[in-house]
């Protein structure tokens, strides 16, 4: 159990499971069903995400040691060395790429997208976080890649407007997602030497900008329903969810910018994204 717990912590399992779910969304929306071939892109991206998360902890363990939220991660807590974590990261990624190589449709595209995601997250985005407090905007591109991988693995082309719109939704959603995290843990990031938006904006400015991104996310959710011509009752649920998250964001802006309110809106925003994935898949499987 000790080794399993270590691997789950290194791989940030909860986040990587969410990434895998977005791969399944792209796959099911194109193919219209869960089938055995989904195993390869889903597990492949899961292992790549595990490796990327472990590598990120190798890159940031000194910073993690300075923040209460991350002090108990395996490397700063002394449960594994940085070298040992790097070896596990390489193993995860090797398995991930081998699994993606088993995909029958657009294999090279799938592999290229997987490699791009790792290089972008552990290279470009990692560097940008140390330069600018607004790195989350270009960094959100990472969230758009997994559903595109699932779409291509099912037989679709990456430039199809339908999957680009899904990717656009995940791109937009990730920005307020990470901004709310910065609101929750901004002081810790600053103490660790990382620039955060909260340091250059007043609480009210931070609220307004975050709410604007959430409203834009809701708009993209409605656009998503329109592009895919989601039928009843799924379109009604998509509309209801988009209205609900918009009102939640407006309520957040009217209140005091307290930690509890930010945490509540963070959870509501994540539930909205999950709901949109489920609605898209339900529509594709029942049409």
Describe the structure.
The chain is mainly alpha-helical and 287 residues long. It folds into two domains: 1-158, Orthogonal Bundle (Tetracycline Repressor, domain 2), CATH 1.10.357; 159-287, Up-down Bundle (Four Helix Bundle (Hemerythrin (Met), subunit A)). Helices cover 77% and strands 0% of the residues. The protein is built from twelve helices and no strands. It has helices spanning 2-10, 13-31, 39-64, 82-100, 107-128, 136-139, 141-153, 161-191, 197-200, 203-227, 234-254, 259-286. Helix 2 (13-31) crosses helix 7 and helix 7 runs antiparallel to helix 8. The longest helix is centred in the middle third of the chain and has 31 residues, at 161-191. The radius of gyration is 19 Å and the shape is globular. The mean pLDDT is 84.
């Amino acid at each position: 159990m000790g080794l399993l717990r270590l691997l789950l912590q290194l791989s940030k399992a909860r986040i990587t499971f969410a990434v895998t779910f977005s791969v399944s969304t792209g796959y099911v929306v194109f193919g219209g069903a869960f089938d055995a071939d989904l195993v390869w892109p889903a597990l492949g991206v899961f292992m790549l995400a595990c490796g990327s998360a472990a590598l990120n902890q190798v890159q940031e363990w000194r910073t993690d040691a300075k923040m209460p939220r991350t002090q108990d991660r395996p490397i700063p807590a002394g449960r594994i060395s940085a070298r040992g974590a790097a070896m596990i990261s390489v193993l995860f990624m090797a398995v991930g790429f081998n699994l993606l190589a088993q995909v029958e449709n657009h294999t090279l595209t799938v592999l290229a997208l997987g490699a791009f995601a790792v290089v972008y997250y552990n290279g470009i985005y990692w560097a940008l976080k140390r330069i600018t407090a607004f790195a989350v905007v270009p960094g959100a591109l990472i969230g758009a890649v997994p559903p595109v991988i699932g779409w291509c693995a099912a037989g679709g082309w990456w430039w199809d407007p339908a999957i680009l719109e899904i990717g656009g939704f995940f791109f937009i959603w990730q920005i307020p997602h990470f901004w709310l995290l910065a609101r929750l843990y901004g002081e810790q990031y600053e103490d660790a030497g990382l620039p955060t938006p909260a340091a250059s904006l007043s609480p009210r400015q931070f609220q307004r900008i975050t709410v604007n991104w959430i409203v834009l996310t809701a708009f993209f959710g409605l656009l998503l329903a329109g592009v895919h011509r989601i039928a009843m009752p799924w379109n009604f649920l998509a509309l209801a969810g988009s209205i609900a998250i918009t009102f939640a964001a407006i309520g957040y802006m009217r209140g005091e910018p307290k930690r509890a309110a930010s945490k509540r809106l963070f959870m509501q925003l994540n539930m909205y994204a999950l709901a949109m994935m489920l609605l898209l898949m339900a529509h594709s499987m029942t049409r």
